[in-house]
Protease HtpX homolog (Streptacidiphilus fuscans), 309 residues
Amino acid sequence: MKSRFAPDRQLTVRMVTVLFLLGLLYVVFAAVLVALLKSVVLVVLIAGGLLFAQYWYSDRVALFAMKAQEVSPEEAPQLHGAVDRLCALADMPKPRIALAGMDLPNAFATGRDADHAVLCVTTGLLRRLEPDELDGVLAHELSHIAHKDVAVITIASFLGVLAGLGVRVGFYTGLVGGRARRDQNTTMIVLAVVAVSAAVYALSFVLIRALSRYRELAADRSAAILTGQPSALASALVKVTGAGAKIPSKDLRTAQAFNAVLFAPALTGEEGSVSRFFSTHPPLQRRLDALAELSARLGDRVVEHSETE
């Protein structure tokens, strides 16, 4: 799908690289499981079933978990109107629109491709943002759809899900044979499956986090260029990020599981070197600095903000 969103070759290279590395890791992982479990059919059924479910139903699962419902233009005229304008400006298909009834100000896009994408915002976001700020957030999420990184993240996270499942199953079941075969050899096989699954999960976790951080910067840049207002997007970032302390804990717990796809993380911890390495989003200040640089080139006044405020 071509659109007027600014192309990002670095994002494309990173997505292809991550998919290639994860695919290679997946082949090795599957080969080790087949060697340990002595069952090609079992491995293929588990892997294939999970991949199909995650890829095909990712949008429905996300909406269900966030307690969101699709809304019609009559139910949310302001939201639909803004998306209509931005999609016309970007020359891209309009995604389905959903609304999550929570005070947490945030948004996300999900779906396996542009024709099956859904853009969801919370009621808290609509209450807090001005129209130009809302346009910046919506353009950010539409950029994820146009650049196809939503689908890439969905596929890439599959291996981590499978590896994590391998760890859990390995801990709670024998994986092979019945009671008569629960001997020392079986125990060693189970431990080996857990070890391999844990290693694969750790590697996939790091790769996906690295891609996730860059794609947020890429979406910020593309959205700011499309709307021509980096300052509005910067203002929205400040409002959304600064609202966490006032949000009910149940909303934060619900959204935290989807941090990787949210416009801004639901919970932010200390921004040390280690935590940044494992975070799904770049630090707020880095995003604001990038928007400030872009603003200087576009002649727009960006919001001034420092980490100490």
Residues 175-181, 304-309 have pLDDT under 50 and may be disordered.
